[in-house]
Amino acid sequence: MTQMIPEQPTQVEAEHETRVWKPARRITALSIGTVLVAILVLTALLAPWLAPFDPNIQHIEMRLLPPSHAHWLGTDGFGRDLLSRVVYGARPTLLLVSLILILTIPVGMLIGISAGYIGGWYERIVMRLTDIVMSLPSLVMALALVAILGPGLMNGALALAFTSWPPFARQARAETLALRRSDYLAAARMQGIGGFRLMFGHILPLCLPSAVVRAALSLGGIILASAGLGFLGMGIQPPTAEWGSMVAEGSKVIFDQWWVAAAPGGAILFASLAFNLLGDGLRDKMDPRHGN
Known about the structure:
Number of strands: 0
Distance between the termini: 53 Å
Order of helices and strands: HHHHHHHHHHHH
Strand content: under 5%
Structural class: mainly alpha
């Protein structure tokens, strides 16, 4: 009696089965961070349509109301709707972050690339200045500058930008030193390219991806620093809705009316988490050494 041998699947059938049971694309930090940042940006852009009330109108008879159907996050000490103020608070936060990036990335890249390319006494002086700025407490320096310049959106951005450019400069210098003797730049020099054209036409594009990753990773800390300025009364001034100043108002009644501080505090946590996830995802995507 012959033994029945089970029929083995052909190669085509095996490939089809693999395709059928292939797991879906896994969720990465980059995808989650992108979605969260998109939600934050859309919230800021669509604030007039998303906010149920005017964020600055005061109703003293409705002060410190707990979360309810009418006011989802409750009201603050002046009877203003907290949900509306949290939604509008995304605008100055994102504007401040954008101003800081516009100021810090070009300055840091310019200093770092020029120091790495020129070298010599210029590099030593510039990098020692960079080390001095990095050694100073960033928030303390920002508070000192705001105290001199005066509180406000632009002054706060200038103060935080002053303490945020050194990491970009050091990273750009390190990459420029690695590229300075590369065959790529040697070929460019053989074609008569040099000076500023070589620095900003050939070195700068190679340093930009890492600068973008560092910028995304530093946004969470910048948001916390800007909220710290607002908490201490050195940032955007009332009655403009700003998360740091809202937390400061809620800290006075945090044991009895916890929602007044919890609402803007949750918004700060959401924004910091969104940009940190985006930065981690960009690092894994653009730097193969950190990929899986």
